[in-house]
Amino acid sequence: MDNIIRKIKEYYPVSDNSLNLLKCCFKRQTFPAKTIIIQAGHFDNQVYFIEKGITRSYILHNGKEITTWFSMEGDATCGSWDLYRHKAGFEYVETLEETLTYSISIDKLNDLYKSRIDIANWMRVLQQENFLLLQDIHISRLNLSAQERYEKLIKEYPSIFHRVTLGHIASFLGITQPSLSRIRSSR
User: Which of 16, 90, 114, 173 is 20 to 30 A away from residue 154, measured at CA?
Assistant: First the structure.
């Protein structure tokens, strides 16, 4: 559970006692590659923390998959509506390689927020950082060229190109796969 604990402590100084309480609530799960762990239209009461592996979040628009996010070691993944509105959401989460997770129910996590202020503050900071990252992605799509978005992704997440298909990367960048190939060949 080293990757998860390391990432938690990067965001907030959660006490060892609180970490132990959190770990006691975790359920270890390993998913094969290409497993949909969260499905649009179905309520999922779990937050998944990734120890090893990678997932992608996506939506369906006119029958086409549009990648919205990648989660890797130490990250958490869940359905936004599931977590915040306590109802089925619109997004899918799929493993891209064999993925080891530790999950906790949203209800147990909410109980921990009430009893452990450091856990509540850690999640607040985590969600704040995710919000800022999503805002950055949105602004980049509006203001940067496809070439600039590609270069930014390489700079910020260099390992992603060894773990994710070009089709998923192109979808995330908001471009076609042939356009991504042209950008890559012009470098």
Answer: 90
Q: Tell me if the pTM is above 0.85.
A: yes
Classify burial at 109, counting beta carbons within 10 Å of its beta carbon; exposed 0-12, middle 13-18, buried 19 or more.
buried
What lies within 8 Å, CB to CB, of 128 at 6+ separation is none
Q: Which CATH architecture has domain 1-113?
A: Sandwich (2.60)
Interatomic CA distance for residues 159 and 169, integer angstroms:
12
For residue 96, report the phi and psi dihedrals to the nearest 5 degrees: -105, -15
Q: What is the pLDDT of residues 4-14, one digit of tens each?
A: 999 999 999 99
Specify whether the backbone of 97 is left (phi greater than 0), alpha (psi in -120 to 50) or beta. beta
Name residue 167's amino acid: G
What sign does the CA torsion over 87, 96, 36, 63 have? positive
What is residue 69's DSSP assignment? E
Q: What average pLDDT does range 62-66 have in this prediction? A: 94
